[in-house]
Specification:
Largest sheet of chain A: 7 strands, mixed
Number of helices of chain A: 12
Strand content of chain A: 15-25%
Largest interface: A-B, 75 and 75 residues
Helix content of chain A: 25-40%
Oligomer: homodimer
């Protein structure tokens, strides 16, 4: 009889968003007259930019004619897109990343879950706490995380780096030396980030101890402060210790379009082995490229029109973020994030747990957010609101919260 | 210092298509006046059907308006597509597969490479020989295949099931009992397949010995003979032993659009563990769904117009297949396949190796094909031609071959 991958049996249920859905559903059934406002989602709501729509229509037409039809994409992605990425996301910031160090993918979720496959199972991972759950879950599936302790909600072989108000949400070097360090900056869910000089310390640390940094920059487009790096490759020495993952989901609203990329510098080696070569092999064997139409859509985000339209879109969401942050402050909450990221992280009042505050907000203000404890044990006592709703709803939600 | 996944170091170079490219490039440089015809590719050349183009334009427009914008897709894929698949690919053939047993993906390559992740590394795999290389390569990466023997070009822990003219290309039950059996039917590269009653024997065998069948039906649309099953679920008992993978690449020309699906029946269990639940967890953690636009394109392939247009497209390629097969026969070759698949498999003449025949065909007829040995040791002495070129080129290539 065949065997299953037993690591899957260790995974605790993924109940965060399903529990939210159940609670909201029960509330609306009991209170059909109440209008719920959802500020819990991490999904965008604004439509695709006109420049992107135009590029996609054009690409669809190309696919309808034999002379301009496109079949299998090149393994790394189309050169037109990789060149645009290298130029606009790296060269323009003084980072020496070439087009053939970029691997086009269907999104940062896939990349951040898959990248661990090219590393040994004996490696020890370190994650910020709280953080996007995919990093840990994909390592559980691979058998890298040891045993789960349901009381502490932690894994025995995972190094947790708490990021709370006590340390200003800046992860500290762990006591035990990790092999693989996941950094999501600006961070989901806290909306906070670190400065370029703080990031430089992490790069130096990784090079010193022989660790690899998996750098998830999905929220880079929301950075507004000058001292925050837009890429880890702005730091000296990052090319020998870091893989950077980027997404078009949040800067261009591509959550339903699916596009991202991974940067694996050619200078990145484990002994004599090139990680670039390994990822190329993984990419070529287990993935078949993002659709031509989608890669053309990605290219359009770098055109002058595309850039201008996306700047407006980001500004729209960041106006929501400012509205939430200001409103919460006025209502007396301690709030974090929202300056370099579309997430606002609030401390729950009066020692409420994250779930208690969820119920309170749902019942009293009919507003839905996300309990911080769903992102890791150090998220307990915090709560996430997102800026991805409409401005009108955001404003209305804050009015309700202020009235509590 | 972090460690890499050492299994990658065991992989021999993937030289098949790069060696072909180098040889063709050298030949054209030396013979700039010769016009090369390529019948080696597995990629389609006909443009997308009008019904698909129309659906994509409409979906692009939806993405440009806030009211009809689509963000993250549901984990399993949109219901409109899963319902269409269940109805047209299963219910219409008497197979009881429901929409929620279907997982929409970005293609059969990804699915066939990823599906092994939910199984234990101690499982022993069996593959037809020759076959699509992704099955073995993805298992090498996972550490399931033992050591590589460069002389025999085989892996110590892989069970090879030779499919040659001697056994009429029908795989035989292996002496050693496998845990996971990969079947690609109709087969790439041989273009041959087995009857429904022969497939039933495999289903019975798998249920008896406790093996799982990974059934890759990527070429199903090319089946022309009545006794060949279009789905493994036409066989009794397949729901308790088989996962079926399907692709839109070859029936609808989606190689650059990227869409496929996996069927994991709810009745499929390893002891008490539901494989459906495991694949759902893997899908939800390591993948974020095919683009909305692409899922609408997939739906359009099931409309009356779409079906009629795709029938024509398949007929176009199968006319090429018939042309190749007939032409090769007239030229005195032994040929196989080409009836239920777009691939023609020929026995090389005069005990030439696959690569010797490659050189001969390139130099004497300026026609490019694929050496059979690239698909496994039992492919040695065979050669693959594909029906995916234009009719004019196919005809011209065969005229040249006949003149040799």
């Amino acid at each position: 009889m065949y065997k299953i991958n037993e690591n899957y049996q260790k995974l605790p249920g993924s109940y965060l968003f399903s529990t939210i859905a159940k609670k909201v559903s029960a509330f609306t059934t009991a209170n059909p007259d109440k209008k719920i406002i959802r500020l819990g989602i991490g999904d965008v709501t604004q439509p695709l930019a006109p420049a992107v729509i135009e590029a996609m229509h054009q690409a669809v037409d190309e696919m309808g004619k034999a002379e301009t039809f496109h079949g299998y994409a090149p393994d790394l992605g189309y050169e037109f897109l990789r060149k645009a990425i290298a130029e606009h996301d790296y060269k323009s910031r003084g980072c020496e990343i070439s087009a053939d160090e970029i691997f086009v993918s269907d999104g940062a979720k896939s990349d951040s879950a898959n990248i661990q496959e090219i590393f040994g199972v004996e490696n020890k991972i370190a994650v910020c706490d709280p953080v996007y759950p995919v990093y840990v879950d994909s390592n559980v599936m691979a058998g890298r995380t040891g045993e789960y302790n349901p009381k502490t909600e932690t894994w025995s072989k995972v190094i947790y780096m708490p990021c709370t108000m006590e340390n200003d949400f800046v992860p500290e070097f762990p006591k035990e030396t990790p092999d693989m360090i996941y950094l999501c900056l600006p961070n989901n869910p806290t909306g906070t980030t670190i400065t370029k000089s703080q990031l430089q310390e992490w790069v130096d640390y990784a090079n010193k101890v022989g660790a690899i940094i998996i750098y998830d920059g999905a929220y880079e487009a929301y950075i507004s402060e000058a001292e925050v790096a837009h890429s880890i490759y702005e730091c000296d020495g990052a090319q020998t210790c870091a893989i950077e993952l980027k997404s078009f989901s949040k800067n261009a609203g591509f959550t339903g379009v699916r596009l991202g990329y991974a940067v694996v510098p050619k200078a990145l080696k484990c002994g004599e082995v090139s990680l670039h070569g390994m990822w190329a092999r993984r990419h070529g064997t287990k993935f078949n490229g993002a659709p031509y139409i989608v890669q053309r859509a990605g290219e359009a985000t770098y055109s002058p029109e595309g850039k201008a339209q996306l700047k407006e879109q980001v500004a729209y969401y960041m106006k929501n973020a400012a509205t939430i942050k200001q409103g919460l402050k006025e209502a007396g909450y301690m709030v974090f994030g929202g300056v370099n990221a579309p997430y606002i992280w609030l401390k729950t009042p009066e020692k409420m747990t994250s779930w208690e505050f969820f119920d309170y907000l749902l019942e009293q203000a009919n507003v839905v957010g996300t309990p911080g404890s769903g992102f890791g044990p150090s998220g307990e006592g915090y709560f996430r609101l997102t800026a991805f709703g409409s401005y009108e709803n955001t404003l209305a939600a804050l009015e309700r919260i202020k009235k509590l």
